[in-house]
Amino acid sequence: MHSKAQDVLIMLVNHMDYGGCQKIVYEILCGVFSDFSKVYLIANHGYYGEKLIDETNIDFVDRTSLSLTDTFKKIREIQRGKQRVILHTHNRKDLIFKYAISRKNKHLHTFHSAYTDKNFLYFFLKPKHAISISRTVSSYLDKYNIPNRIIYNGIDDIEKTTLKPQNSQTILKYIGRTTREKGFDDLLQSFVSFKQLFAEFRNLKMDVIGNGENLNSYKEYLRKTDFINDVRFLGFLENPWKEVSQEDLVVIPSYFEGFCLVAAEAGSLGIPVIGNDIKALREVLDFIPEENFFDVRDKTSIYAGLKFFFKNKKSQQKLAYSHKSEVKSRFSKEKMILQYQNVYENL
Q1: pTM, 2 dp
Q2: For the chain, what is the radius of gyration of the CA atoms?
Q3: Kind and range of the H or E element at 171?
Q4: How far apart are CA 183 and CA 176, in angstroms?
């Protein structure tokens, strides 16, 4: 079996700021950097990039001002004189850089998402070695005849986090980027609508954990509806689960997820989840009831999902709690890192 001791790893990603892909790249690099003689990260700066610089001895190459040609040259330069180099890419546009790798070296691409549009790029830029982060993504790649191996994204062992003491009030928890494609616009409008129309939602609150470009416009929208005090915008939190109670409900309104880290993390803590009816969410939390899935474009559907939860709150909590060990084991960070180490070794 090949030894990685003298190998060089180049991790190429668009940026290392907040994001699910970026968090996974960070976890992989923290787990494998000591296996290689040298590790390079080529990316724009950001939160997870700064953490890697502080916590590891990787070489960070700031991609901010690098042109396509400059990036090609940098990869070529790193290869020069090295025994073997592995280039690991994560964004579909970066598939072009497989041509920067010489014959003796290897290219690996992780697909973090399956795009709803027809991507003719994959007819011409097929990676020889591919990883998909779920069956959802894998089935998408099958349509393009791209052989791939599934490695589920890994989550931290966050049970050590002390949850808030249980209380009688449920708070809706939205964790993620506050963007339209994440379904946040639809969720916020539905929340306001329910507060106005239904007495049982008058005392309902929502915590929004994450950042996005339109935060100010969302706050202004809430001011106009007099519900600004019913929504807390907490921004990005390194540990978004610190202020969560098992009385709370995690809501995932995303239009698409390749995996859904938030769902896996909530599941590992035994916290109930409802969400938009997408394949990845059904795959990660395959035990939750059909009624927990809604159509994010339909306020009536979201209302039905919330209504079902509150009507069956105790059984929902019991169901989530009974599956937390299973979720934690299935999607452990340690398992993910071991699988990537195996892939690197056997390329």
Answers
A1: 0.93
A2: 21
A3: strand 171-175
A4: 10
What letter would DSSP give residue 173? Answer: E
Backbone φ and ψ of 209, nearest 5°: -110, 105
The tokens describing 269, both together, are 């803590």
3-state secondary structure string across 33-86:
HHHCCEEEEEEECCHHHHHHHHHCCCEEEECCCCCHHHHHHHHHHHHCCCCCEE
Full DSSP string of 78-146: HHTT-S-EEEEE-SGGGGGGGGGS-TTSEEEEEE----SS--THHHH---SEEEESSHHHHHHHHTTT-
Query: Are 169 and 149 a contacting pair, CB within 8 Å?
Result: no
Q: Which uninterrupted H or E stretch holds 330?
A: helix 324-330
The amino acid sitting at 176 is G
What gap in Å lies between CA 309 and CA 286, rounded to an integer? 17
Per-residue pLDDT tens over the stretch 62-108: 999 999 999 999 999 999 988 899 999 999 999 999 999 999 999 99
Helix (H, G, I), strand (E, B) or coil at 206: strand
Compute the distance between CA of residue 213 and CA of residue 79 in angstroms, rounded to an integer: 38
